């Protein structure tokens, strides 16, 4: 923004521009929009920011984000405690919950092993996962990280730690997306779909 | 967002989703991002919001946004005070300033006349514009609202109020955008370009 803008507006624009996926133009538009909001609305927005950051922390069982001691899923007595689905981010839990089909628990790693980006196994929430498995009652751990190099490597690493504990470790199936078209599928997806074919 | 998300996160997501151009999915992504920010970063963001809203108001001369009594443009003694460029939004000033060519002053209407949306002339900053013209020293008022039905109507309305004061009122030229291609220009733009043709 040029220097003829009021300084507090420039500061606010820069704050918006720090958010992922928001460039300087969008940030300026958002800052101008804030100017047109009521005082109370801006107060509410600022409070929501501070409040979320202050009260939300990791669930002491599954490392999902929660403002309670246990997240609503770990705290739900109807969930199947014998299955743990291991995901990269809390966002992934939202995706699984939308299917409405999965009734087990989750464990959030908060990242993937990536030596290039300096993320080592100790930076992830792997220890708490092992502790949960070692505490007993778990029959299956589903590795649900993304089908990327880092996702596969992290899944393999975690599986290798859990298998000796006598618990079944599985990986999500990869293949053609439902409703997808063969001709648009990339080679790797098509290869996976062929490799994992099922009898009809 | 489903109800397995922590409530403060849902509240924050809804706040982000109120901003223009941000849907529920982007809002959730931004809320999760805030969780990964440092405490101080979130404090700074919240402060920037409150501070901008609290300290930024309208320039008492041109109605642009400023945190001083006069905006930097009205306060600049090198600007040509005999020309006033009338725009819809403070954002439009940024666009003109980027050209680096305009040395006059501005006046921000903060909207356009739109009976359909219930915006009447009295809702705009027209009175303060007339007061500036009546105070004397102004030789030309450039109507720089957008070439839309509402922009044209507002320009015509304001021009009709200013003309009797003996001040020249002009309108931005409309025609082919520089670098644009004839075959892609819409009919109205092409008609304007033809109508406003200049001798070579």
Count of extended strands of chain A: 6
Which strand order spans the largest sheet of chain A, edge to edge or round the barrel? 4-3-5-6
Average pLDDT of chain A works out at 89
CATH topology of the largest domain in chain A: Dna Topoisomerase Vi A Subunit, Chain: A, domain 2
What is the CATH first-level class name of the largest domain in chain A?
Alpha Beta
Which second-level CATH architecture of the largest domain in chain A applies? 3-Layer(aba) Sandwich
Radius of gyration of chain A: 22 Å
Total of DSSP H or I helical runs spanning 4+ residues of chain A: 7
Q: Roughly what percent helix of chain A?
A: 40-55%
The percent range for strand residues of chain A is 5-15%
* Element string of chain A (H = helix, E = strand): HHHEEEHEHEHEH
Please name the two chains that share the biggest interface, counting residues whose Cβ lies under 8 Å from a Cβ on the partner chain: A-B, 57 and 57 residues
Chain oligomer state: homodimer
Tell me the domain tally of chain A.
2
């Amino acid at each position: 923004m040029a220097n003829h803008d009021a300084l507090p507006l420039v500061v606010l624009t820069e704050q918006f521009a720090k958010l992922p996926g928001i460039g300087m133009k969008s940030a300026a538009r958002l800052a101008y929009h804030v100017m047109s909001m009521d005082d109370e609305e801006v107060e509410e927005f600022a409070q929501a920011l501070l409040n979320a950051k202050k009260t939300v922390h990791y669930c002491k069982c599954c490392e999902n984000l929660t403002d309670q001691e246990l997240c609503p899923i770990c705290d739900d007595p109807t969930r199947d405690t014998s299955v743990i689905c291991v995901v990269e981010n809390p966002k992934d839990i939202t995706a699984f919950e939308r299917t409405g089909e999965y009734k087990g628990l989750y464990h959030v790693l908060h990242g993937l092993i990536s030596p290039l980006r300096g993320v080592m196994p100790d930076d992830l929430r792997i220890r708490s996962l092992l502790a949960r498995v070692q505490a007993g009652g778990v029959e299956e751990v589903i590795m649900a990280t993304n089908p990327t190099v880092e996702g596969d490597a992290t899944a393999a690493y975690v599986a290798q730690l859990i298998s000796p504990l006598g618990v079944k470790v599985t990986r999500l199936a990869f293949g053609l997306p439902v409703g997808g078209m063969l001709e648009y599928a990339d080679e790797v997806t098509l290869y996976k779909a062929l490799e994992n074919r099922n009898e009809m």
